[in-house]
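Lecture 7 notes: from sequence to structure.
We start with the chain below.
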Amino acid sequence: MGEPPATLAEVRTWPALVSITQAARALNIGRTTAFTLAAQGRFPVPVERAMGHQRIRTADLIRYLEGDGGASA
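Predicted structure tokens for the same chain:
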């Protein structure tokens, strides 16, 4: 069995950019689903290219988890 979902308090301690896999843990979705959604442009928060990889801004993830769906910037 995988790791339990990350709490909002835990996410707040993460670095500024995280992997899709790490963001998926906070969103309580599977890794495969997360990569599929990202490829389709349907990941719940914006996906950026950084360091040669797809990354999620932790600030966007926190806003989403706080309940505004990441709408505020």
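Points to note: Strands lie at 17-19, 47-50, 53-57. DSSP finds four helices and three strands in the chain.
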